[in-house]
Amino acid sequence: MALFFWGTIFFFILFPLSGLLFFGWLFTTKKIFLKILIGIWVVILGLICLLIALAWLSNKTVLEKEDYYGQYVINRDYFCGPQTDWQYNNFRFEIKNNDSIYFYITDREKILKTFKGTITTTQFYSSERLIINMEQPAHHIMTSNPTTYRSAWSFYLVFCSPKFNNVYFKKGQWKPLNK
Questions:
Q1: C-beta of residue 41 within 8 angstroms of C-beta of residue 18
Q2: Which of 34, 118, 147, 168 is deepest in the core (most CB within 10 A)?
Q3: Is 53 exposed, middle or buried (CB count within 10 Å of its CB: 0-12, 13-18, 19+)?
Q4: Among 150, 167, 166, 172, residue whose Cα is nearest residue 60
Q5: What is the radius of gyration, based on Cα positions, of the chain?
Q6: Would the pTM count as exceeding 0.85?
Q7: Ordered alpha helix ranges (H), 10-117
Q8: If we measure between CA atoms, which residue out of 154, 179, 142, 162 comes closest to residue 75?
Q9: Distance CA 155, CA 172 (A)
Q10: How many other β-carbons are positioned within 10 Å of the β-carbon of residue 172?
Q11: Minimal CA–CA distance to 148: which of 82, 97, 95, 88?
Q12: pLDDT tens, N- to C-terminus, the chain (179 residues)
């Protein structure tokens, strides 16, 4: 429907107007006709470029299984404070290329306990969703599959913990916090 609308505007309004302005300039040699014609098309092409850029920026990342591989840390971009810092220093996980997942209980850089599992993905959507199968007993953060939130450039995972509610993870290397 939108394509029909824009096609109609181009065919019945812009092309005839451009033709009139072009022939007006051609027969009268007045530069105002040429300036208006060029101005109209510069604005139109500028709007088209802007719409293409906005569409690209608003598109979400389409994830494949390989995109999930890597190390994950607590996402401190959404919440700050002592609780977030504590979670950052005590929880992280890694998904390896052999589809294994290792959830680490840590004391800063020191790993205290490791929970193991495997991952798969489901393709019911345009972007693959992560499915986690942890060996039992599993840590409470890893008892459910995460929700994946995507933007144009990246994604983050949100786990629903019975003790902490939502726990946010993003891809990244653990680094000591600067206090």
A1: yes
A2: 168
A3: exposed
A4: 150
A5: 27
A6: no
A7: 15-28, 31-58, 82-90
A8: 154
A9: 11
A10: 15
A11: 95
A12: 677 777 787 778 888 888 888 888 888 888 898 898 899 999 989 998 998 888 877 788 889 999 999 999 999 888 888 889 999 999 999 999 999 999 999 998 999 999 999 999 998 778 899 999 999 998 999 999 999 998 888 899 999 999 989 999 999 999 988 76
| Residue 161 β-bridge partners | 165
Helix (H, G, I), strand (E, B) or coil at 3: helix
Q: Single out the residue of 37, 68, 39 nearest to residue 146, CA to CA.
A: 68
Query: Which residue type sits at 170?
Result: K
For residue 126, give the DSSP letter: S
Among residues 104, 101, 106, the alpha carbon closest in space to that of 85 is found at: 106
Q: Where do we find the tokens 């693959």?
A: 128
Instruction: For the chain, report the end-to-end CA distance as a whole number of angstroms.
Output: 57
Structure tokens at 175: 């680094």
